[in-house]
What we know:
The chain is mostly helical.
Amino acid sequence: MSVNSFDELLSIISQRIKKQDTNMRRSITPAERLAVTLRYLASGANFTDLEYDFQISRKTIPFNVKETCQAISQELAPLEMPKPNKEKWINIAEKFYKEANFPNCVGAIDGKHIRIVCPPNAGSKYYNYKKISFDYFIGSG
């Protein structure tokens, strides 16, 4: 992530994730909270690794990650994924019709590989797009 993108995201969510300092401790800054969350989401590092990288307790990190993800979702969802209105649905359907020749379609789901036992003498009907027979995966036939 570029520094500019990080700063832009931070400016959008910082008020939601900012905590107050106390006499007993300094709070984790919004920038640190966002950095830990992004590292966790991008790398899949465990909380112990993040504890050593950021000098933040591994018991605190899950709460920070959850709060930061919620803030990102609440702030960005209306901007990046607005609820479609009737006009938007019509535009989506027209685009599907133009590009895929599917009339009255507003969405599509990619195929699912389901393991089955092929009927005898089925020929090429039971091969997936990678040309692998379905019965190959379950070891029969």
